[in-house]
Write a structure and sequence with these properties.
single chain; mainly beta; about 55% strand
């Protein structure tokens, strides 16, 4: 029995290590987002007007977005849900969101990693059928506590 428990713990640890090695697992900070919103207006966000942090695990994601106005950072939206990565396909399925239009949105993204950049592109189909087209979402990977000089760790 003891051997079986040790084997189970070892297998769990190994599977967690394998998942953790996927290049998308981690914390990402938005650099730029370019595309077209559901009304056909151009989207061109940088950290000067928008802040976005995305955390990806092997099975889930969480995103929080803030609008930047002058010296203020104002909460915009947050959502979380499941993530499926299949080849170059990256599909987020929101399960909880602060924006009701996104609670049953459908996503269809592709992804690639170049160095410490995660580049995502694709569409978000809203419940009313309108589409947000994201030509390029560029995120930079945050690596450990040294990324913030205010982190006391």
């Amino acid at each position: 029995m003891k051997t079986k428990s040790i084997f189970s713990i070892l297998m769990l640890f190994c599977s967690m290590t394998i998942f953790a090695q996927h290049p998308l697992v981690g914390t990402w900070e938005m650099v730029t987002i370019k595309g077209t919103d559901a009304d056909g207006k151009s989207i061109n966000w940088t950290t000067a007007n928008m802040r976005e942090t995305k955390i990806i695990t092997p099975t889930h994601y969480m995103l929080i977005q803030h609008t930047v106005r002058n010296d203020s950072v104002i909460f915009n939206t947050s959502h979380a849900g499941t993530v499926k990565i299949d080849g170059n396909k990256y599909i987020e399925t929101p399960t909880i969101t602060s924006a009701t239009a996104l609670d049953i949105a459908k996503t269809d993204f592709t992804w690639k990693v170049k160095g410490d950049l995660f580049i995502q592109a694709g569409t978000i189909t809203l419940p009313d059928g309108k589409k947000v087209t994201l030509d390029e979402l560029v995120f930079k990977k945050l690596n450990g506590p040294s990324t913030s000089s205010k982190n006391p760790i």
